[in-house]
Amino acid sequence: MSDPVRDVRPLLRTGAVLGEGPDATVPEHYGAPLREQRHLLEGTSVVDLGQLELLEVRGTDARSWMTTVTTQVLADTPVGSSASLAVLSPQGRVEHMASAVVVDEDALLLVLDAGARAGLRRYLEMMRFAARVELTDRDDLRVLGALAPADSVLPQLGLPAPVAVWSEPWPQLAPGGIAYGPDPEDPVGAVLSVFEGAALTQLPWRSEHLAGMSSWEALRIADHRARSAREVDERSIPHELDLLRTTVHTAKGCYRGQETVAKVLNLGQPPRRLVMLHLDGSQDVPATPGGEVRLEGSEGKVVGTITSAALHADLGPIALAVVRRAVPLDAALSVQVLLGGADGESASMWIDASQEPIVVPRDHGARPATAKL
């Protein structure tokens, strides 16, 4: 279970409409979501990601120890380098995800989704044993998101030098990475800039400086990137979400859950797969996480669930969903959209959706013929 979301005040309150769920403490938009998304794409605005939590891992053994307890290789990586990592269960299911930056020779800074830090910290404390490391919650820091380092996006604002900057060349493979599907079309990537929080709150923010979370989520969905707070559930294994691309190093030494990763990679197929959906926008009704995905209309078989949804400035209404592996890649789907009833009871309608594959069946080559007895 996730821990309660921290009380974070938005950098700008004027015109701010707060989000929901894990993003309830930051603005979903400031009154013009599509215009804000354009500014973000043009590299003239940033996103307030104050809901994200930061954990510092410091000590002589910080990088070597994190290499042993996560899915990523961090030992001997250069200062300033970035990586994505995960912690898996013994059965190979995703328990924690984080973005990591090497801030100096003896320290890593982990950026986690809202409510995720406490659980990861508990696990790391259990695994510390004799390792020379210290774990510190860094609530003095705050994250801004953009398509480039925030201080270069808004040079006129007078942002201080960032404490750390995380980025990776998505969708290119990280060292030890393997793609489970095609690259997204026209990916834009993401850059997280970490600042001293007190310094950010003192700046003269205006609405043209900021885009809301609806813009950030639209670009993330179009980039085919899974998010811990949205796409991961108690059944998720990395292959289903294309996490082997950058988050799981498939050639490193032993780590918890490695047997499942190797077995599915080399011999099997993940039971589910992440897919991006292009939704019929003629009904002008937004999809929401939790809606059912069915084959061929409301009477069809339930084959998955919407995990994220947004309105993209160019692509229109889009969503991420986790569906069963057996769903054909070209199958026509219908998505459940939840409506509020006049009497307070929930109602729903169904809209058409087409697939853009993210995870596809892996070809393991020809299998040997079964011997006849």
Précis, in short:
This protein is of the alpha+beta class and 373 residues long.
Secondary-structure blueprint of this entry?
Layout: E1 17-18, E2 27-29, H1 33-42, E3 46-48, E4 53-58, H2 62-69, E5 82-88, E6 94-104, E7 107-112, H3 117-126, E8 134-137, E9 141-146, H4 150-153, E10 164-167, E11 191-196, H5 197-201, E12 210-211, H6 213-222, H7 228-231, H8 258-266, E13 272-279, E14 292-295, E15 302-312, E16 316-324, E17 333-340, E18 346-357
Parallel strand pairs: 3-12
Antiparallel strand pairs: 1-2, 3-9, 4-7, 4-8, 5-6, 6-7, 9-11, 10-11, 13-16, 13-18, 14-15, 14-17, 15-16, 17-18
Give me some keywords for this one.
373 residues; alpha+beta; Gyrase A, domain 2; Elongation Factor Tu (Ef-tu), domain 3; 2 domains; five-stranded mixed sheet; globular; disordered C terminus
